[in-house]
Amino acid sequence: MAQERAILAGGCFWGMQDLIRKLAGVVSTRVGYSGGDVANATYRNHGTHAEAIEIIFDPELLSYRKLLEFFFQIHDPTTPNRQGNDRGSSYRSAIYYVNETQKEVALDTIADIEASGMWPGRVVTQVEPAGDFWEAEAEHQDYLLRYPGGYTCHYPRPDWVLPKRHQND
């Protein structure tokens, strides 16, 4: 089975992981820190890194485009450095692409979101090449599985679903 890797940041990584792990085609997820300046980042010392999620998925079952469409449905990509009550650059919206194809798909998806007029403002999601991904501490992995009533600001927004572009979408 061919697998692909994606790194996304959209606010608190607990909620992102809890929703994305349930998608058909997701092989594994882990939360951590990416897009910043501190080596061996930790929760207490992650410098300019964003809270991020690394997703390993089967592109035969889940396209990168579909993954991004879901990502844009479960967090607000129009709020700079903020998701829900979480504020600061750690909670920014970002796509860390691992190859040029992912970059093109990310930019195309953002253009479609902008053109749709369905989101409450302009998309502020950063699109940058993937750098180091520092895995978060064990207590942050699978957090909402262990604490089902724990804090999250992520949920699918039924009005933020892009229309199908092609018949086979």
- Tally of alpha and pi helices: 4
Mean pLDDT: 94
Shape: globular
Residues in helices, as a percent range: 10-25%
Low-confidence stretches: none
Strand arrangement, major sheet: 7-6-1-3-2-8
Count of extended strands: 8
How many angstroms does the end-to-end distance come to? 22 Å
The percent range for strand residues is 15-25%
Largest sheet at a glance? 6 strands, mixed
Structural class: alpha+beta
The secondary-structure element order is: EHEEHEEEHEEH
Radius of gyration from CA coordinates:
15 Å
Task: Summarize this structure as a short list of keywords or feature phrases.
single chain; two-stranded antiparallel ribbon; 4 helices; alpha+beta; 24% helix; 169 residues
Question: Can you walk me through this structure?
Answer:
Helix 2 (64-74) crosses helix 3. The strands form two sheets. The protein has a six-stranded mixed β-sheet with strand order 7-6-1-3-2-8, covered by helices on one side. Strands 4-5 form a two-stranded antiparallel sheet. It has helices spanning 13-20, 64-74, 100-116, 143-146, and strands at 4-10, 26-34, 50-57, 82-83, 86-87, 93-97, 126-129, 133-135. It is built from four helices and eight strands. It is of the alpha+beta class and 169 residues long.
